[in-house]
Amino acid sequence: MPLQRFLFAALLLPVIACGDDPIAPRESIGVSGSITLQDGFEIPPGARVVVGWFKGDDQPELFEIYGEASLPQTSTTFSLTLASPPPASAMLGGLLGIGFILVTADAELGDGDFLEAADFDALAGAGGQFAVIWTDGDPRIAQEIDWAADFAPGYSVGRGVPRQDDFDAFEPAPDGAVILEIGDIDAIEFVDFT
Fold first, then answer.
1. What residues form DSSP beta bridges with 147?
2. What pTM value is reported for the model?
3. Whole-number Cα distances in Å, 146 to 13, 126, 159, 169
């Protein structure tokens, strides 16, 4: 019996010790999902999926583009890979990033560019109820944005959650769960988290 207890303790100790290690952030992500077309709309020629990161802190009407992929006109699905963390300039307080998945036919709009909220009318579509979320795992962000604590460090996909007496929230969703809607951007409902 003493040998069995020793072996059990020896096997359990590394598991317990690993529990104290911080979780390494997920520094890349493949985001994908389905495409729906509003009546009378199709994917425009030259369309691309881009991720517009909400600037928020000092420029709430500005989105920084980081992440893009082509979107052929015959597509019924899309995929986009972010191979490294978003730029620090795209983070709220340096701790949280919220990237909206947008569709543009503007060949000039790409990584490092900025999109103003007023220019959303020119977009060809969006995944309004989804976002790419980045968090560095710092618990301070949850003091300001309660739902951020639900996300593991690094990249995740977030799905909108309506709340009655507060701003909407995001909850973790599978990387391939995004629904991208093509059509009139004013008819696409976005998560109202601010």
1. none
2. 0.85
3. 33, 25, 15, 8
CB contact set of 57 (below 8 Å; sequence gap of 6+): 92, 93
The identity of residue 154, as a single letter, is G
Burial of 97 (0-12, 13-18, 19+ CB in 10 A): buried
For residue 48, count CB atoms less than 10 angstroms from its CB and return exposed for 0-12, middle for 13-18, buried for 19 or more.
Answer: buried
CA 127 distance to own-chain centroid: 10
* Beta carbons within 8 Å of 117's beta carbon, 6+ residues apart: 61, 62, 63
- CA-CA distance, 88 to 53, in Å (whole number)? 11
Please name the amino acid found at residue 177. Answer: A
Q: What is the mean pLDDT of each run of 10 residues along the chain (194 residues)?
A: 36 38 78 97 96 81 92 95 91 89 94 90 95 90 89 96 91 96 96 86
Q: What token pair was written down for 52?
A: 């517009």
Q: What is the DSSP-derived secondary structure letter of residue 7? A: H
Cα separation, 172 vs 152, whole angstroms: 9
Phi, psi of 161 (to 5 degrees): -130, 115
Which helix (H) or strand (E) is 141 found in, with range?
helix 140-144
Rg (CA), the chain: 20
